[in-house]
Amino acid sequence: MQKYTLAKALADTKKIIEEQSAELSKSEPKGLFSPIKYTLDLGGKRLRPLLALLAYKACKPKGKPEEIKPVMKAVELFHNFSLIHDDLMDDAPIRRGKPTVYKKWGSAQAVLSGDAMLIEAYTALSEAEPGLIPMLLYTFNQMAQGVCIGQQLDMEFETRPIAEISTEDHAEMITYKTGVLLTGSVALGALVGGMDSPEELDLLTASASRFGAAFQIMDDYLDLFSEEDKFGKRRGGDILEGKRTWLLLDAYFKSPKEVEKTLAIEGDDEKIKAMTDLYRKLHTDEDAVRMVEDLTDNAIEVLDDLPFDTSLFAELYSSLLDRRS
Questions:
Q1: What rounded mean pLDDT belongs to the chain?
Q2: Taking a C-beta distance cutoff of 8 angstroms, is the pair 251, 282 a contact?
Q3: Which of 81, 258, 301, 312 is least enclosed, having the fewest CB within 10 Å?
């Protein structure tokens, strides 16, 4: 039997999500479903369905992607639903290099199409093996609730003084906002793959949680230290939106007065440049990359305690560092 590779998993994931987009393109009314198809067609890393597939194949090496397809569609639809609403809440104009849904169709349409996309996620999940649906639904709902908690914490942080936010607070927010969707995707994939060991499931999701933290910090890093056309978002958007990122907290810990002075600068471009220069001066950019490396290494180390082949997870996690540009 030919070994299943990460390249093959990526190809299978891409095919399944493209099929889902094609199905939705036939739905009526067009005004409701066009923003959904638009969002799916923007691409992205397809990381959540990919993680579900990798977990499934790790637990059931001879399994076919068709069996895990309902979960893969569900987590990708849910993720993109959350992006439609997040962009509206954050007043973000660009997503993956294109206008966000609310910028293109308006706020009301973004809310309605986002809601419909959430319903489509549950519809996709209902296509799973009937005997698995109760456990899948419970896990999916826990994941969905966690994402909402993370978004709420993120919004509350924007209005809290930086000095009042601890590293523990920030780690909790990341765990919910980013990590819980990754760990949920892994758990769902493992359950469909037949995993029945709570201890093994805990290890697999713990690894994904550490990867989620690394992924979010890298995302924060790229917000400033990446070319906009490659990152797909407005450069410095986190600074302008008041996001309490790992980089901002790290810089504040090192030099609170300089951070406060820089954040008070008038003019978007001037503030972004000044904050970028300050991060470099304080070596916050370098420390962020080191933190990503440490978290990624730790995520891979956790995988070593599992009794089945997790090499594709390790390969995927290591590829995170290739996002630097």
A1: 93
A2: yes
A3: 301
Q: What is the rounded distance in angstroms from the CA atom of residue 78 to the CA atom of residue 144?
A: 8
Average pLDDT over residues 123-149: 97
Q: Record the tokens describing residue 159, joined without a space.
A: 């209005």
Average pLDDT over residues 74-89: 95
Cβ proximity of 261 and 162 under 8 Å: no
Across-strand partners of 98?
95
pLDDT at position 233, please?
Answer: 67
Candidates 319, 315, 311; CA nearest to 61 is 311
* Distance, CA of 49 to CA of 316 (rounded, Å): 13
Spatial distance between the Cα atoms of 156 and 152, rounded to a whole number of angstroms: 6
* Threshold 0.85, pTM exceeds: yes
CA 27 to chain centre: 27
pLDDT at 227 over 80: no
Q: Which amino acid is at 66?
A: E
Which tokens hold the place of 36? 């959904």
C-alpha dist (Å) from residue 20 to 68, 82, 124 = 14, 17, 9
Name, in order, each residue with C-beta under 8 angstroms of 309's C-beta and a sequence gap of 6 or more.
58, 61
